[in-house]
Amino acid sequence: MSTVTDPTAPARPPKARGAASARIPFSSRLSPTRFGFLLVAPVLVLVLAIVVYPVAYSLYLSFVRTNPITGSQTFVGLKNFHNVFTDPAFWHSTWLTLYYVVCVTVLAAGISLGMALLLREKFIGRPVLMAVIVLPWSLSTYAAGVVWRYVFSPQYGLLAGIFEKFGLSPVDFLSQNSVIPSLAVVHAWQFAPLGAYFLLASLQVIPEDLYKLGKVDGMGILRRFTAITLPYIRLPLSIFLVLVGGQAATAFDLIYFLTSGGPGSASRTLTYDIYQQTFQDQSFGTGAATSWVLLVVLTVVTAGYYAVAMSSSRREKEAS
């Protein structure tokens, strides 16, 4: 039986071999979840390699005693932590770290707030000043250490030259009694620009009418600051204090470049103590245990501070 074809029907183009499969991209053959995992897989592998594995291995080292010559390891349980808490050098380093954190936090908060209040005003040269203020933050810690070593030097330093101009004897700012405050000045000088821009962003959203009403009501400068400015910057200031406090508690490079933990052990904070134990004394277990003690303390303090700050902010919003 013959088949009759309609001459008016349009001819179908021949199918290209593999055209249908070639047009389907690889990402369309995967579910969105699998494609997402495929995209983040390289980053995940990198994080596992440079973050998770070292942290897990340091936890393992805190429970073993490692022979630095043979590399053999013996499980000792909590003995390394016991050695840490019974070592007077640990408590000396803890006190120095706490002292250093308080000095850095107070100085950085004061400098940041002062710069933010200054930059909030409109005056000639404000854009130039905003660019200059951020320069310390852009410097590497090594560069900052080299610069301030020349500034503090009692023989050829900038401050020594200024004292000599006024007929004063030079002061060794890196001596045993003043090394921690001097290091805190350098640390706050480098970290304060970040806080200044943090606070400046909050200051710029405060309505000017509030200050005008405060002046009408007879409020002084201090009263206007506590009643108007402080509520707006309390949360970003709290966040900055946590950041600068945690960064100061784990500071190492600035101390290493400027003082190397000296003179004597006057600037041997916990981070430098960990470096000394691990890489110079090769007491890997004790160094790892000390680092985990520092990590746990920082985590607890930071979480508690954030909880208090958020709870206070929530109560203020409910009250308003």
Task: Describe, in short, the structure shown.
This protein has a single domain (79-319), classed as MetI-like fold, CATH 1.10.3720.10.
Protein traits:
14 helices; MetI-like fold
Helix percent band: 55-70%
Would you report the number of β strands? 2
Give the N-to-C terminal Cα separation: 91 Å
Low-pLDDT parts are none
Based on CA inertia axes, which overall geometry fits? globular
Structural class: mainly alpha
The CATH architecture classification is: Orthogonal Bundle
Q: What is the CATH top level name?
A: Mainly Alpha
> Main sheet, how many strands, which sense, barrel?
2 strands, antiparallel
> Oligomeric status of the shown chains?
single chain
Mean pLDDT: 86
Q: Cα-atom Rg, whole angstroms?
A: 30 Å
Task: Give the domain tally.
Answer: 1
What pattern of helices and strands is seen along the backbone? Answer: HHEEHHHHHHHHHHHH
As a percent range, the share of strand residues is under 5%
User: Number of DSSP helices?
Assistant: 14
CATH level-4 homologous superfamily = MetI-like
Could you tell me the CATH topology label: MetI-like fold
Task: Please list the strands of the largest sheet in the order they lie side by side.
Answer: 1-2
Keywords: Cell membrane, Membrane, Transmembrane, Transmembrane helix, Transport
Subcellular location: Cell membrane
Domain ABC transmembrane type-1: 94-305
Membrane topology: Multi-pass membrane protein
